Amino acid sequence: MDKVTLGPMPYMSVMPSVLVGTTLKGRANYMTAGAATVACMAPPMVCVAINKARYTAKAIEENKTFSLNFPSVGQVAGTDYCGIVSGAQEDKSKIWTSFYGRLKTAPMAEECPVNLECSLFKAVDCGSHLLHIGEVVEVYADKACMTDKKPDVSKVHPIVYAQAMYFDLGKPLEKAFSAGKRYVKK
After folding, report:
1. Could you tell me which residues come within 8 angstroms of residue 7 by beta carbon, excluding any fewer than 6 positions away?
2. Which residues pair with 126 in a beta bridge?
3. What is the mean pLDDT of the chain?
4. Considering 5, 18, 21, 23, which has the largest number of Cβ atoms within 10 A of its Cβ?
5. Helix, strand, coil proportions of the chain in percent (round to 5)?
6. Whose CA is closest to 32, among 83, 106, 73, 76?
């Protein structure tokens, strides 16, 4: 294999596109983020990296809460808008219908098929960004996107981000924790 060096960068082949829901000065706000992932399984935690200068970072600091909302492919324009316009200049809450759960300060977008309501566990200074680690206090999912009492990715149709483009997920390949068993010696 002929490899080339590209220099240090936080390359990930694909990332989920999420809307980070926050409240600042009593107003709901949504910011698009691609740097979000699972942080811990027990207790359930997720994390999202947000530039320190972003309006959303200030909102998380104010309330110690946020939500991660998973838009579907039909919502790509609204999702992109929330990433290119600052909540400091525009009221982006009008793009989505906000609802609130147990924490009362983490707005969630009703139109998104899956929403995670989070309490801030810790913010880690990583340089240009703060890594916000949130404990998931509740997950909300549309009944229409469920299979066997769990969100079904084929029904959610989440937006994935890679190299400045949005993508839909492809077809399933193989079952995790099963496909690799063909290499197990018997």
Report:
1. none
2. none
3. 94
4. 21
5. 20, 40, 40
6. 83
Helix (H) or strand (E) run with residue 59 in it:
helix 55-63
* Predicted structure pTM score: 0.93
pLDDT at 16 > cutoff 90: yes
Q: Letter for the amino acid at 118?
A: C
Fill in the amino acid letter for 110. Answer: E
Q: Which domains are present in the chain?
A: 15-183 (2.30.110.10)
Q: In angstroms, rounded to a whole number, what is the distance separating the alpha carbons of residues 33 and 12?
A: 14
Closest CA to 72 of 36, 132, 41, 114: 114
Q: CA-CA distance, 104 to 119, in Å (whole number)?
A: 11
**Which pLDDT score is estimated for 9?**
84
Confidence at residue 63, expressed as pLDDT on a 0 to 100 scale? 96
Residue type for position 152: D
pLDDT reported for residue 140:
98
Torsion sign across C-alpha atoms 78, 84, 87, 91: negative
Encoding tokens for residue 144? 């229409």
| Chain CA centroid to CA 96, Å | 15
